[in-house]
Fold this protein.
Amino acid sequence: MKISVVGLGFVGLSLASVLASKGFNVIGLDVDVIKCKKISNGIVPFYEPDLKQVLKNGLKKNLEINNNFLSIKNSDIIFITVGTPQKSNGAIELTIIKKAIASVGKIISKSKKNPIIFIKSTVIPGTLENTLLPILEKESGKESGKEFGLISNPEFLQESTAIRDTKFPHVIVLGGTEKKYLKKAKIFFNILHPNIPIIITNYQTSEMIKYANNSFLATKISFINQISSICQNIPGANVDDIAKAIGLDSRIGKLFLNAGPGYGGSCLPKDVKAIMNFSLKTGTTPLFLEAVEKINEQQIVNIMKLIKKNCGNLKGKNIAILGLAFKPNTDDIRDSISLKIIKILLKKHVIITVHDPMAIENVKKIFKNKINYASSITNVLKNSHCGIIMTAWPEYSKITNNHIKNMEKRVIIDSRRILKNSKLDCNYQAIGIGS
Ligand code: UDX
C-alpha cells in the first residue's frame, strides 16, 4: 500500500514518520525544497520531542521525501495536512489547501488507483463539500465516490506530544458520504489503531467536531483563568487546589485546568476566532466564545497590572522574560502570550532581556536587536527589576536564591505558579494566588 502525506508540518511529518516506521510505504510531500532536503537528511525543521528518532526510523525503512506532486501518483491513500492560516478577520485562509487539492486532482487524473483522500487540515464546516470536492472533481475529471473518495479526518494532536498522539489518538473521526470509501477507511484505521473508537459521520459534522473540541479546550482554560482572577483578590486563595478538587469530579475532568497567562499556540486562538467568524455568518452570535476570548485577552491585562503594581513607572526599567515558547517542549512561538507582553513592554520603553531553552532563535527573527537575549537563567535575571515566568519549562521550577541574587529588585511574577513552593527570598507574585 502506498500512502502519501501532503504538507510536512507538525501533523504531516509526525504522521509520515510514524506510518513509515510502522512499515508502510510513505511519500512525504512538501513544496518547500529546503525543508524537504533537511527532512531527507533526518533533520526536523522544528523542535518536537521524539520526532527525530521516529523520522530516522522511517527514513531507514520506506519513507521518501519529495517536493514534486508526481511522486504521489498511484497512491492508495493521500493525507492532506497543509496549514489553514488565519486571515485578519479571523476567517481561515484556504489558498494553500486549494492549491494542494488542485495538484492532487491533476495527479489522480492519471492514477491507476482509486485513492482515498483524507483531509486532516482544520477547515470550517462546508469546506469539503463546497470547495475541495468540486476542485478535485474538476482537476481529476473523475467522480467522487466512484474513482476516488474524499473523507474528513480531523487531527487532535498536541505539539510537544505529537508522536504519542499520532500513535495513540483518543478518537478517529471520519466524515464523508461515500459508504464504500468510509468502509475502506474504517478497515485501514482499525488496523493502524486497534481499539480506538471510530466516529463515522458526514462532512459538516466532522469539520465541526474539530472546532467544538478546540473551543471546549479554550473554554476550560478561560474558565479556570476567570476563577484564578477571582482567587487573586482573595488573600490566601490558591487556584491550583481548586482545579485539583473540581478536576476530581469526573463530570469536569482534571485536564486543561491550569491557570496561566492565557492560551496561545497555532491552534486554539485561531480556531476559536474562525468558529466565531463562521458562527456569525450562520446567524448565531457566539456570545459564549466571545467571553472565552475576552478572558484570554484579560490575562495579559492581569499580568501587566501585576508588573505595574510591583515595579511602578516602567520607563527605563529592566525586565526579564523567562519563557518565549507558547508552552514547554516546543520552539513554537506562534501566538505566544510572551511575545504579546514583550510588544506592550517595548511600547513602554522597558529594557527587555529574554530567555528560553528552545525558542530564542525564532524570537530573534522577530525582535532582532530591540531586546536582549540571555543564555542562562542567572544572566536573564541579572540587574533586572522584575522577572516574569511565562512558560512552564521544568528548569524554571528549579530557580534558587543563587539565580536571583544579582537582580536589581527581587520581584518574580510567576504566571504558571511553578515556584509557588520554593521559599525564594523575593517579592513573589503569582497568577491565581491571592495576596
Ligand atoms: C491544541 C489542542 O490541544 C490539540 O488537540 C489540537 O490538535 C491543536 O491545538 P496545542 O496547540 O499543541 O494543541 O497546545 P495545547 O497543549 O492545547 O496548549 C494550548 C495553549 O493553552 C498553550 O498556550 C498552553 O499553555 C495553554 N494551556 C493549556 C493553559 O494555559 N492551561 C491548560 O490547562 C492547558
